[in-house]
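thought: fold this chain, then report.
action: predict
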Amino acid sequence: MNFKDALTTLPQYVLPQHTLSKLMSYITHSENKALKNWCITTIIKHYGVNMDEAIEQNLDAFKSFNHFFTRELKPEARPLTTEKNAVACP
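observation:
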């Protein structure tokens, strides 16, 4: 484990599990504009989220960080396969 990984996982070892869970719940459900927009922007940059696929692209429109994860996508963003034996997962 490198130093960065150790530093980012440190709260998991230092804080009691219930405290960490409550903190994460507070952050992800928070409607504080600055906090939720910072969290969303961080995820977009870190994971390369393509916001062009989303119907709503304005971060201020999302009520919370959790609301961002249930955003509606444009119909053409993720077309379903038409192959007969294929499996599709939403």
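thought: worth noting. The mean pLDDT is 89.
final: tokens above.
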